[in-house]
Amino acid sequence: MQMRFLPSIITALTALTLTSCSTTTAEQYEATALTSYSWQVKYANNLTSQPQPRIETFANTSVLNRNGLKPAGAVVGPDDRGLWCPTLPPRPSVDEVEQRKRPQEEIGKPELIKDIKYKLTYGVGNTQNTLPTNYEVYRHVVKAYPQRTPLELTLGVNDNSVEKAEPVSK
Predict the structure, then answer these.
(1) Do the Cβ atoms of 42 and 54 come closer than 8 Å?
(2) pTM of the model
(3) Cα angle, residue 110 at apex, residues 109 and 114 outer, rounded to 5°
(4) What backbone phi and psi angles, to 5 degrees, belong to 97?
(5) What is the largest distance, in Å, between two alpha-carbon atoms of the chain?
(6) What pLDDT sits at residue 143?
(7) Rounded distance, CA 62 to CA 72, Å?
(8) How far apart are CA 56 and CA 117, in angstroms?
(9) Alpha-carbon distance 112 to 38, whole Å?
């Protein structure tokens, strides 16, 4: 009996989702991808059963990719996603890892973590906005950037992110 309400609920949610996003056209824009490597070690009283181990971060390195161009000082890349990566940070020594251990804790193995944060900065009139985005938007901007093709940007809920970037159709 409740199944007959499902289509109307889906329709209402779809309408809500569509109305909470907006679009804007940008002629000035810059896409960035901050690529970082960091060494992390997990510490816990019992690494196999403790759901939230304490995580310590050791050395990290990063490089800022802009519009798909090779960043100054970049030596690794581009990778299979067109991103330049920093050199690897030095692995923490056994002494460094043990120094951060608390009594009764076990120490996990050092893990190299790769993280990428995408952002899009765009101008509309005299206002400039920088919002988080995703790999797909980054790639669309990288392709449009050399010709400075105007882009139609689809913003996420409450205009807190850029979900889509497409060339403006003339």
Answers:
(1) yes
(2) 0.81
(3) 130
(4) -65, -45
(5) 66
(6) 95
(7) 12
(8) 20
(9) 6
To 5 degrees, how large is the angle CA 130–CA 133–CA 138?
100
For 87-144, where are the alpha helices, taking DSSP H only? 94-99, 135-144
Write down the pLDDT at residue 16.
47
Q: Sort 122 into a burial class: Cβ within 10 Å, 0-12 / 13-18 / 19+.
A: buried
Q: CA 166 to CA 132: how far, in whole Å?
A: 16
Q: Which two tokens stand for residue 72?
A: 């100054």
Q: Are 43 and 105 in contact (CB under 8 A)?
A: yes
Give mean pLDDT in consecutive 10-residue pieces for the chain, a chain of 170 residues.
Answer: 54 50 93 97 95 96 95 86 94 98 96 98 91 98 95 95 90
Tell me the two tokens of residue 85.
């990566």
